[in-house]
Predict the 3D structure of the following.
Amino acid sequence: MLISKPQLIVIGNGMVGHHFIEQAIEHDLQHRYDIHVLSAENRPAYDRVYLSSYFEHKDAEQLNLVDLEAYAAAGITLHLDEKVTELNAEQKTVSTAAGHLYPYDLLVIATGSYPFVPPIEGKDHTHCHVYRTIDDLDAILAVAQTPHVKSGVVVGGGLLGLEAAKALVTLGLKTYVVEFAPQLMGVQLDAAGGELLKKKIEDLGVTVLTGKNTQAIIENAAGSDTFLTMQFTDDTTLDTDLIVFSAGIRPDDSLGRQAGLAIGQRGGIIINNACQTNLPDVYAIGECALWDNKIYGLVAPGYSMAKICAKQIAGQSGQRFEGADMSTKLKLMGVDVGSIGDAQARTKDSLSFIYQNPKTGVYKKLVTSSDSKRLLGAVLVGDTEDYGNLLQLFLNDMDLPAQPESLILPNVEKPAMGVDNLPDTATICSCYNVSKGAICASVEQGAMTLEAIKACTKASTGCGGCSQIVKDTLVSQLKKLGFEVKNHLCEHFPYSRQELYHLVRVENIHTFEELLAKHGTGHGCEVCKPTAGSIFASCWNEHVLDKPLVGLQDSNDYYLGNIQKDGTYSVVPRVTGGEINAQKLIVLGEVARDFGLYTKITGGQRVDLFGARIEQLPAIWERLINAGFESGHAYGKSLRTVKSCVGSTWCRYGVDDSVGLAIELENRYKGLRSPHKIKFGVSGCTRECAEAQGKDIGIIATENGWNLYVCGNAGMRPRHAELFAADLDKATLIQYIDRFLMFYVRTADRLQRTSVWREKIEGGLEYLQNVVIHDSLNLAAELEQQMQYIVNTYECEWKAAISDAEKLKRFKHFVNSEQPDSNIIFVPERDQIRPATVEEKALIEG
Amino acid sequence: MQKICSLNDIVPETGVCALVDGLQIAVFRTRNNHLFALNNYDPFSHTNVLSRGIIGGHTEGEQEILYVASPIYKQRFNLATGQCLDDETVRIPCYAVTEQEGAVWVGGVL
Ligand code: SRM
Ligand SMILES: Cc1cc2nc3c(=O)[nH]c(=O)nc-3n(C[C@H](O)[C@H](O)[C@H](O)COP(=O)(O)OP(=O)(O)OC[C@H]3O[C@@H](n4cnc5c(N)ncnc54)[C@H](O)[C@@H]3O)c2cc1C
Ligand code: SF4
Ligand code: FES
């Protein structure tokens, strides 16, 4: 008979339960124990912190945390859909709803917490839900997609409530937040910060009701405007179709209670510094555990408990749980919020330093010790740039500068507080408890990029709040190791594209020669020349074939067509929005026939004519232009196509005229030169036949206007576009797109599509929303004006080229002969032409 | 040597292609009015396109090498020697070129 190993049972495969398993594997516990994980949910652990993103991708797989193969390889058995219903601490067994019995030698309880739903009459209506699991989100989604559902209420204005509210906005519902307390986020913010947050959130179209106590939820009669009515204790009411409760969490301590474990007064299984309950063979970790009378509603402290618990079981009893920092930095509905330590200034004799700017909606507060030498807490609303620095000052108990207020005042030279001043022990990533020393060590071992550091230390893979400081640490360490850290365009310019753009604009530079003389060295090359050409075009919009500019252009721009593998060019006239009438189609056919060109419908809703020799291009374009066509800029790093679906004019589901808008937008932005090509899509309803969410700019009609999506990509690395702003009228839509595109043109790297640019932007989507929607950089007017200049100075490049003898001179294969290039040879295929292969040419010529 | 065009026919920092005794010759003019001539055939893409490439410079040590980058797959060729900078086994023919009284003249293989 086999002597079986002792049994280690883990209840719960949530974030903390899963982290415990990772730690257990790290400490080889699987060799000493037979490990079974019992999970009430029907899927392995997933990332609850990013739960809300599920509404965007609706793909549970993307949230998954568990590598099932790693579990299996370590011999760990994960039992899904196996809810534990009874814990018998005397027999040392647990039994499950499915009727299975598991004996244990060691037990780890990681049952997390459950959402608190106030005991309100009507709370169990099918349109009332909580916000904790993927199943909850599926249920909310189902209600939101029920016909006639238009509005939703979130009960609770804490951190999670506001996140849920954001999700309802994303789902296209008119959204309300109802909060019992007089302010939002009472746990993290002081009253003034809460008030400012409320204002900012209301600016986004969410109605915030504070000081409201819900008494009852009443189902409205069939046929009413809404499904539900909420009644408040002050006799007011609110009509809505969906209610999401987010009124706090309660530790899921039911198994502990039932087995007689020590439980805190307000719930939670009491644990000591070793994460043990009052029974030495039973541990509790994560949100079900009560340590020092505290429940931590955050994942980082749970991860520390998981780590310490695994170490304890592995016999390393030295490591103790010593509490965790509850500081948080979030982006709620596009509003940056940060809270550190004693945000409410409850410490006796503490001093508060406050900066408030009603114009930009920024509020910052520092709480210091009475001698103003130590930071005790901070509140940041509207601008959390200082969060990382302040947190380090707080966590490491560092000396504050003589004028602590300089830490939060704008436009003040910030006291040097770089990562260099931090001790090696400073915790940089609190989610994964990674110290500065650990990051520096990984750099020394060859992790030279943020990605590499993430992979080997896990830093910055949790909430992401530490990414800036991780990057700073990386750069500082690389410098220390003697590496040069630069983002230079090429050997001729010690600047990034963004810096060059600013130099060009500020110094009003119009030629490469001037740029090179003032800011560069050497001759220039195929990298910096086209980049400069593109920047000049974005700024001044002069014809790309004007003399001083022509030498800068890639051959595609040089001949206003895409060069093909055999040295011929393609001809792609603009077909705005993909709409084309019979007459123009006929002209395309005639031109193709008369010049012997290959024709193909492109993926961009237009027609490509291939196989044109350079000397044919002007005549081809002349015919096209006379028929009313324009250049399609298929060759430029510029606006390509605005793809449309048929929309409300013909489609029975269309809510708005997508074709009309697509044409208007394509006409507005055509000719705009940019760091890389730009594509739009406009769909007339959520069926999304124009695939707008795979475009740099995507627009989808809604009942209330247009939803704007940004930074999608369908090419090499597909990326879903993200909802940028909802229900816009056309004027606002165009205003946002103007600002957005100009900001991209101004700040992106060379050949960086909006998708990659977006991923590199510090602060992500919210930062962009702040810049574009809330004008946080005070740039909006300038960006709009620059875009208007481009719009006003648009000319069809081909039309300008064919009416200029100087420019036409170039469209000849030989400078000294009218002969064509004898090396261009076509062979027939499927009733059209194609370039002959090298072998075919040898045969033909031979 | 043969006269192929006037200097003004070549915009500074660009090239043209000339037909000389049945040969396709790419002739480049830099912003300092230096002239270079290479065979127009790009051995990597098998096309006659080098005259349409971008002129660039690469400094190694003291010396800056001028080159043209093919418009098809971007391989670089030393303008003065025809040596490919991206593949040391490849070198294309280069030719004598000069300017006299505003005209550009091209001559035999160097
Ligand atoms: C003609 C066309 C294929 C077709 O037969 O349908 C095409 C052809 C080329 N594409 Fe494309 N792309 C075409 C639609 C697309 C699409 C679909 C779309 O636009 O809806 C995509 C994916 C969408 C996107 O961009 O996100 C697409 C993603 C790419 C990429 C990858 C870009 C990326 O950032 O991932 C490249 C490479 C690049 O630009 O660096 C590329 C590059 C090219 C080039 C320019 C390659 C080259 O340098 O020679 C091709 C030359 C076209 C020519 O000579 O005219 N093409 N290409 C399509 C022209 C559309 C038009 O009317 O302008
Ligand atoms: C929308 C949302 C956003 C959040 N954002 C953040 C954030 O930005 N930062 C942050 O730090 N934290 C955030 N949190 C909190 C974070 O998700 C939790 O702190 C973390 O998930 C706690 O992990 P846990 O394992 O203790 O609990 P859970 O992840 O809840 O896991 C507990 C698991 O145990 C299972 N279980 C319970 N009872 C039983 C039983 N009897 N038998 C078997 N299985 C059982 C449950 O089904 C569940 O799967 C967020 C939470 C939510 C819901
Ligand atoms: S997918 Fe590749 S081969 Fe096809 S058109 Fe685009 S770039 Fe050319
Ligand atoms: S602090 Fe959350 S990922 Fe680093």
Summary: Chain B has a mean pLDDT of 91. Chain B touches chain A through 37 residues (CB under 8 Å).
